[in-house]
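Re-run with default settings, no changes from the original entry. Doing this only to confirm the output is reproducible before filing.
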Amino acid sequence: PFADNNIDCVPQSNMIDAPTGVDVPHKDEAHICPLQQETIQRLIHLYSNKGDTVLSPFGGIGSEGFKAVEMDRKAVMFELKESYFDLMKKNMAEIVRIKGLKTIFDK
């Protein structure tokens, strides 16, 4: 089945005026365009189905992957900046723990 592309299916209040879900550490520069968790959730809901894989080619601190896994999707992410990648690992470990999931590294 196709993802639900009905734009009215997600309340408009979940869009732009929401706090950022995960912060960049103070010793690093501030991100020029932090993406709100509600925006990520809306896009994942509209353009994917449960069980799909969400690709985030500019993974950052893993916000898209975190929301994808939280919403019963899989995630593939890439990040070049080491400090962001370290936060991505931490954030993904947290959602895996919360959801009680196994990773490819578990026996």
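The two ends are 33 Å apart (CA to CA). The longest strand covers residues 53-56.
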